[in-house]
Amino acid sequence: MEMKELKGQAFKDMVQVGCERLHENAELVNSLNVFPVPDGDTGTNMNMSFTSGAQRVAQSQEEVVGALAVDLAKGLLMGARGNSGVILSQLFRGFSKSVETYNSLTAEQFAQGFTHGVETAYKAVMKPVEGTILTVARESAKAGEEKAKTTDNIIDVMRAIVEGARVSLDNTPELLPVLKEVGVVDSGGQGLLFVYEGFLESLTGEKLPTSFGKGISANLASVAHHENFSNVAHAVDTKDIQFGYCTEIMVRIGEGETVTDTFDYDTFRNYLNDLGDSLLVVADDEIIKVHVHTERPGEVMNYGQKFGSLIKIKVDNMRLQHEDVLTNKATKQKPVEKAEYGIIAIAAGNGVQTLLKDMGATVIINGGQTMNPSTEDILKAIEEAHAEKVIILPNNKNIQMAADQAAQVSDTPAVVVPTKTIPQGMTALLAFNPLNQLEENKENMTNALSSVVSGQVTIAVRDTQIDGIDIKENDFMGLINGKIVFSQKDKQEVTLDTLRQMISDDTEIVTILIGEDATQEEAEEIVSVLEQEFEDIEFDIQLGDQPVYHFLLASE
């Protein structure tokens, strides 16, 4: 099979299949994350980062490879999470810089794009470590360059890149002792291989078998996370962690009242390098993104504000993360006692699921609109919760009956809080009190639902008329508490009108969850408009990744 010219649509398809393959294997990549203090889960971070880029490409009106590559890089930069996500964004930023002037690509130009991506990624990392995603990217790109010297077939070049990545990944334990000690390959490198395999699968049109690094299989992967990771963590004392806060900020250059300095990449990076380690600084003409381990996260933020406004902040206490790992290890060494409470939440979208976990949900069932879990699914989740008492949050009116039925037949005492939306589920979690009895918690969590107004923005699948509103197929609809209130062609206007109607004199905070068919930029544009109209209200943007709904909205 030959392809001597890579055109826009083929590039678009390649990105989507690469994204799907990474998404399918994100948990496996998570299981390989063996470092003593993780910056979150590598698979989740890479998946959410690449999904952000793939969404931007899918929504792009561009038709040529160069412009689509720029869209991919921009989406990745905006959505990049953790070390692995930022490095992934830089690989494709360098690729885009290399190919942005081309309408289509030859095999040579294609291979050069990967090489430029590696060069950009290495520059972004202050102290590159071999045996990581960087090594796999570099050696696979080199294999592609060598192949391009002997062929003009893009598929052959991509196949060489994939094979180079496999060989390099298998060698990562020889370069990084901690990997060899635990018996796994580098998690970031494995994630990158999945992306590249997706690219090749798209170009050939043939389904490829899933490749695992040397010594790893799907069955072994689950063991790696629960046993090996804890063993490595146990070998490190918490007091030995020199820089305890994993800090990430995103700065919009030149915006805001705090700006005092003109941004210079080298000056900026050198200053932050003195504040900690594991530093990554990436930037384009509009945005600076920073990842650093430091003892002074506030100083990182203050320094960033000298160059623009902070549009995203994330700080994790890695010492607490490490203690949690040690605690979990100690727990696994003796029979696990049942928890007092388990909370089951039903939700779709990686971002939404992560938010619910962070707020206290102990088991997540993947489901929601168009994906209603069965009574049996919920019963299995009750068992998985391994708790004395269970609270179920259906978060969708179509799941309510199955949840009620599961609670009735479960051997474990269980109640259902009648949450119909994700915002209601989040509000209910905030009202949970572990010291209260089961029925008391149900009552308090149910009563709290009245404090939140839920909104949704989705697309109409047919022409109809509801409550006097004319709805046309492919119109965007705004819903408030399940009722359609607006319908028109412009997504931004529908979202703005819906939020304006949701906001009252008592509103203090508005939350926007970005779905898989929307972008960070769209949400930021919406907030910038509303901030001018509602100066006393706090606006919070979160990546939800939910299907069906472009935006989930909450007003409290």
Description:
This protein is α/β, with parallel strands linked by helices and 556 residues long. The chain has 4 domains: 8-236, Alpha Horseshoe (Serine Threonine Protein Phosphatase 5, Tetratricopeptide repeat); 239-319, Alpha-Beta Plaits, CATH 3.30.70; 336-450, Phosphotransferase system, mannose-type IIA component (Rossmann fold); 453-555, Hypothetical Protein Tm841, Chain: A,domain 3 (2-Layer Sandwich), CATH 3.30.1180. It contains 21 helices and 16 strands. It has helices at 8-24, 26-31, 42-59, 65-79, 82-99, 107-124, 133-148, 154-175, 177-182, 187-204, 218-234, 265-273, 297-305, 318-332, 350-358, 375-385, 400-409, 422-431, 438-448, 491-502, 520-533; strands at 245-253, 276-283, 287-294, 308-317, 339-347, 363-366, 387-393, 414-416, 453-459, 464-466, 469-471, 476-480, 483-488, 509-514, 538-543, 551-555. The chain has a 6-stranded mixed beta sheet with strand order 13-12-9-16-14-15. Strands 2-3-1-4 form a 4-stranded antiparallel beta sheet, sandwiched between helices. A hairpin with a 2-residue loop joins strand 10 (464-466) and strand 11. Helix 11 crosses helix 14 (318-332). The longest helix is centred in the first third of the chain and has 22 residues, at 154-175. The chain is globular. 49% of the residues are buried. Residues 35-40, 215-236 and 329-334 have low confidence and may be disordered.
